[in-house]
Amino acid sequence: MGNKLWDRSINPEPAAQSSSRRHFLDYVLGTSAFATLGAILYPVFKFMQPPQIIESAENSVVAAKLSEVPVNTGKIFKFGNKPGILVHTATGEFKALSAVCTHLECIVQYRPDTKQIWCACHNGQYNLSGKNIGGPPPRPLEEFQVNTRGDDIVVTRS
Question: How far is 104 from 82, CA to CA, in rounded Å?
Fold first, then answer.
């Protein structure tokens, strides 16, 4: 018994030193586990977040040449990040609309037999002014202004 008392009185530090080492190891292991968890979860959340699409600031675009769009036909063209449709009507005038269906955002097309714009996804139908006249589309198509400059057909946002 004398030895135990003598050991404590000479070296009282081992218990305190062991406690501080344990706290240090707990801190290191805890922070490394937290950092590992963050390194795993951050890419997962970034993958699940949709990318930001920056809308083009273009207000006008050359949609086609006059020779590319015969009477009673349509042509899809790129207007910024979204497609547009240019229609040369049977009466000879040009109409330009957004080519994105207002129902489920499918791409519409011109049908010369019915002289209408048609969405093949769910049989949505629009007249040449973009008004929804049949099927499930809830809103009309956005209409654009059309001008000709020489041989170019220029489409401009209204």
Answer: 14
